[in-house]
Amino acid sequence: MKQIDLNCDLGESYGVYKIGNDKEVLKHISSANIACGYHAGDHNVMMETVNLANRYNVKIGAHPGFPDISGFGRRELNLSPKEIYHLILYQIGALAAFTKVQGVKLVHVKPHGALYNMASTSRQIADAIAQAVADYDSRLILFGLSGSELIQAGKEKGLLTASEVFADRTYQPDGTLTSRSEPNSMIHDRKFAAQRIIRMVKEGKVTAANGSDIPISADTVCVHGDEPAALEFIKELKDALTTENIAFRKNWFEK
């Protein structure tokens, strides 16, 4: 039976500003990427989201991003690999404090937004992120875009990696995600998105924006929690995967 992990970016509210429907989403996913206070989230939100993830038996990951709350971490910052190494360590440590006091395990790390995209193509940035994860705890799993420099860097650092695919994003012929500045970057048709994921899992292929088929490896699939229809997207995806006898993975990639 084919298997897939289902993850979502969560904990992205900040102060009085509420983003997403975390409590309901957590009932349907297997892994949560929790914002660490730089691109979104704060100390109260981190504590609450870790607690909710633990309540629903969802695996917890750190979701570090650029220090850019006003841009939601989706703007590229010109930081050195050393600075990126430090900001990854800082944010993993921040979330780990909340998992420690609640007696739950930090399982993985997934960079956010522009940092994630830059690490997909820049080996220097990918190496800085992978090194920070390995130095903090080599048992952590590194999530990265399927076929990316980040996945390769993680493997070379001796980390377990999870190749990530996206239900609600389109792809370029080189395997990168279509820029959010482009009108066709997001997929809003839930049934269409679900069928794309099924093909990724079963056939290892996805149709790029130019109509060509490209190879892809799918260990974990992401739905963005800040999208208004995230919950409906996840439910549609779960139903479609179950119909196709694709199971949801639990603890499949842990050391």
What does this structure look like?
The protein is α/β, with parallel strands linked by helices and 255 residues long. It has one domain: TIM Barrel. It contains 8 helices and 10 strands. It has helices at residues 22-25, 43-55, 81-101, 113-121, 123-136, 149-156, 190-203, 230-243; strands at 3-10, 31-35, 59-63, 106-109, 141-145, 160-166, 205-207, 213-215, 220-224, 247-248. It has a 7-stranded parallel barrel with strand order 1-2-3-4-5-6-9, surrounded by 6 helices. The protein has a two-stranded antiparallel ribbon with strand order 7-8. Helix 4 crosses helix 5 (123-136), helix 5 (123-136) packs across helix 6 and helix 7 packs across helix 8. The chain is globular, with a radius of gyration of 17 Å. The protein starts with a strand and ends in a 7-residue tail after the last strand. The model has no long low-confidence stretch (mean pLDDT 93).
TL;DR?
By secondary structure, the chain is an alpha/beta fold.
Q: Just name the CATH architecture.
A: Alpha-Beta Barrel
Order of helices and strands: EHEHEHEHHEHEHEEEHE
Q: Report strand %.
A: 15-25%
Task: Give the structural class.
Answer: alpha/beta
**Major sheet description:** 7 strands, parallel, barrel
CATH topology: the name is TIM Barrel
Low-confidence runs: none
How many domains comprise the coordinates? Answer: 1
The best one-word shape is globular
Which strand order do you get reading across the main beta sheet? 1-2-3-4-5-6-9
What share of the residues lie within helices? 25-40%
The count of DSSP E runs of length 2 or more, i.e. the number of strands, is: 10
CATH class: Alpha Beta
